Amino acid sequence: MLLPLLPLLAATAFTSPALARALPTDNIITHVVHEKRDFAGSSGRWTKGDRVASHVKVPVRVGLKQSAEAVEKAQGWLMEVSHPASGKFGQHWTQDEIIEAFRPASDSVDEVMDWISETASIPKQRITHTDNKAWLAFDASVADLESLFRTEYHEHHDTATGRSMISCDQYHVPAHLVDHIDYITPGVKGIHVYSSDLRKRSWGPGYHGPGGYGGAPGWQPPKHRPAPYMPWNSNELSTCDVAISPACLRALYHFEPLPPNAKVSPNNSMGIFEEGDFYDQLDLNSFFTNFTKYIPNGTHPILDSIDGGMAPITNLSQAGGESNLDFELAIPIIYPQTATLYQSDDLYYALGGNGTTGGIFNTFLDSIDGSYCTYSAYGETGNDPNLDPTYPDPNGYQGQLMCGVYKPTNVISISYGEQEQDLPAFYQKRQCNEFLKLGLQGVSIFVASGDTGVAGIPGDGSANGCLRNGTVFSPTQPNSCPWLTNVGATKVYPGRTVFEPESAVVDPPGHPYHSAFSSSGGFSNIFPIPDYQTSAIAGYFADYNPPYPYYYNGQYNSSNGLYNRNGRGIPDVAANGDNIITYVGGKYRLEGGTSASSPIFGALVTRINEERIRAGKGPVGFINPTLYQHPYVLNDIVNGSNPGCGTNGFSCAPGWDPVTGLGTPNYPKMLELFMSLP
Ligand SMILES: *[C@@H]1O[C@H](CO)[C@@H](O)[C@H](O)[C@H]1NC(C)=O
Ligand SMILES: *[C@@H]1O[C@H](CO)[C@@H](O)[C@H](O)[C@H]1NC(C)=O
Ligand SMILES: *[C@@H]1O[C@H](CO)[C@@H](O)[C@H](O)[C@H]1NC(C)=O
Ligand SMILES: *[C@@H]1O[C@H](CO)[C@@H](O)[C@H](O)[C@H]1NC(C)=O
Ligand SMILES: *[C@@H]1O[C@H](CO)[C@@H](O)[C@H](O)[C@H]1NC(C)=O
Ligand SMILES: *[C@@H]1O[C@H](CO)[C@@H](O)[C@H](O)[C@H]1NC(C)=O
Ligand SMILES: *[C@@H]1O[C@H](CO)[C@@H](O)[C@H](O)[C@H]1NC(C)=O
Ligand SMILES: *[C@@H]1O[C@H](CO)[C@@H](O)[C@H](O)[C@H]1NC(C)=O
């Protein structure tokens, strides 16, 4: 439909003389503003610089809207393959099937292609339709783009990192194409440039992501303390209240190691994500020597290096507490199955130096799913140059961003994260859709729920890490995504044994070696309660209603409530996470954190997948719907809490609770249940 031009002009308040110049030349097709910069949200970090010279050539990406029908149906598809009552349980999708289902309609592609080639005189053969079908890509001069998109490109300078981007304040597309186009770059979202056509900038002072710790933004190193006692006998169970060894875990969750010479599937390696923290082989050797003699020295994870990620370290003093903990827990449970290490990002980005930008996981997800590199959702296409690393990186990895170079493993464990409030909601929703797609393909994702109770990390947003004036509970990210499995932490308290029920970890502040620690848990402000969790959460509120005011739909600013009454509940399950024996930097020591709980749970599911593969079945995939239907396969944890924000937090209770979820694994019962499913 053609609309009169003048009212449109009045409605969009142009300020740019270039636009006033360009518009009157076309009175056939009506153009409308497609995106406009949100000045309120840019918080002074970016400064607008010179206009970009008209001859500069830039790579252009036009993101096409994915089938809206597919996006709407996706949750139903995931339930179809992962709900135990579904006739299609376990019938996971191939990556090609996913690309096909989410591709834009072909008439969108043709119409957008026609417009570009006719208006900018770019031959159609120079426009690439990307493999995942969601993008058109071509190179064009700034002059051509300014007339195509009726805009003006300027350099924008990031005062935090010193980098420059080409972007515009707003741009236009023909009205009849609005529904086909998701996003254009360079647009309001810029592209980084290294062209000699631009003024060279020096690199500015360091910018540390929210949270401010070393390593990935927001990530907290595992808590550690000198080991008070060495259980010399690796099978000793009387000391599990002091130090957790592999034998303690076997007794708690009722499993045995596989025979060292067992024949195992080559396709069932357990994936573990690391960033900015590096395992050390000598430490693994010391651990195996002392606690799991059935594992030979030199046993190590298969390295899937992502965008320059490097491991292991060669200098013992740089050994990473997180990586060593993850592998010293997982390998003893899965051996002789292998572990796969997804070591993400070059040192420049991974070590939280000048390159740290605030987001995590997107470059990792790109590497295991090429279509994610250019996936459009919620107004965001591909990685976000304001939040994610950009490759090639002049300060590190010089290759192109890795897209789909690795196959995802059946199980992936992640012991990193930050808070929901640290990242824009659209960024988190787009990433969450990717976790959903991995679930559709049969991948189980386990994430440590966080170590700060109902609060965030101190200093993140407020002194105590809580929202709205330091009072409202702060949910963790990526945990709040409903399509992954969150793991909280339990503990064997002093004087207790592995033959009694565990309790949630409550390590109060004031410990000489680490800060306060309890499982992060609560309710998302962004994601609603998924169907599989509805009755578990309703049961908790009905029988054990927390003594705090609450709000709905994430609207904490306009209420006195402390938590979202209709948000996705965190965590789903739990496993031991305190006083874990590790070797780090040549030293025997104890570590704690939900960082430990996630690889323990993931390793046990890797064992279940192995048994299913042996029986001719596929991997279990997204396990939450099955676990919430059959909570008896978990040991219900009923004691403990997760204090924070000046409160006692939530309390454990019979059934699901926002501290330890449904509970810790009862391996034989879980195995029996999953073996009974198709
Ligand atoms: C399993 O791995 C082997 C060897 O790497 C490969 O040949 C085979 O195709 C894989 N099978 C499946 C089902 O992926
Ligand atoms: C394995 O490595 C550990 C640590 O370096 C060492 O103490 C031990 O002697 C080694 N064992 C064997 C069998 O080589
Ligand atoms: C544990 O490992 C270290 C390093 O290999 C070794 O020095 C120590 O003797 C071991 N302890 C026991 C009890 O095996
Ligand atoms: C190992 O790392 C430490 C601390 O970063 C450093 O002081 C030491 O010189 C390094 N040693 C070697 C051999 O590189
Ligand atoms: C950050 O940039 C400054 C200034 O260019 C440089 O001196 C410093 O080494 C950089 N730090 C990192 C971690 O790259
Ligand atoms: C924050 O807390 C202070 C002190 O309790 C109070 O005066 C102020 O009104 C609060 N602000 C908001 C936005 O709740
Ligand atoms: C609450 O207010 C803060 C500060 O104004 C703002 O940053 C945040 O986005 C608001 N959150 C919601 C859910 O409205
Ligand atoms: C119950 O949990 C509390 C911490 O909240 C702990 O001090 C206590 O020892 C636990 N009781 C048992 C029986 O483990």
UniProtKB/TrEMBL annotation:
One of its GO terms (cellular component) is extracellular region. It comes from the Eukaryota. Its main location: secreted. One of its GO terms (biological process) is proteolysis. Binds 1 Ca(2+) ion per subunit. Keywords: Calcium, Hydrolase, Metal-binding, Protease, Serine protease, Signal, Zymogen. Ca(2+) binds at D636, I637, G655, D657. InterPro entries: Peptidase_S8/S53_dom_sf (IPR036852), S53_propep (IPR015366), Sedolisin_dom (IPR030400), Tripeptidyl-peptidase_I (IPR050819). PROSITE patterns: SEDOLISIN. Its cofactor is Ca(2+). The active site is at E322, D326, S595. GO terms for molecular function: metal ion binding; serine-type endopeptidase activity; tripeptidyl-peptidase activity. This is Peptidase S53 domain-containing protein. It comes from Friedmanniomyces endolithicus.
